[in-house]
Amino acid sequence: MNFGPEYLKAQALKSAENHLKRAANFTAFNIKNPLFQRRMGKGSASVFVRLEWPGVLAVIDPDTGTVLAVSEPGQPEVLKAGFLPPMPGTL
Asked: Which of 16, 56, 86, 90 is deepest in the core (most CB within 10 A)?
């Protein structure tokens, strides 16, 4: 077994990954509210924009609570795979 700089680097990376996994689980269990929520727009065209754990951006109708769009985690500009927005006349 090689205990040189590459081995030590690999072990340090593995340790950092384990710390992040534990921290992500801890955060998921302890966050109770959105990280950010604010009304965007005015009047009947306004929507709620909400950032939730783990970095998911959602656009919500403030009157009905219907989710109009939701992103992939950590990719706020990418629509979640398989998400189907509500269609007019079916709400």
From this structure: 56
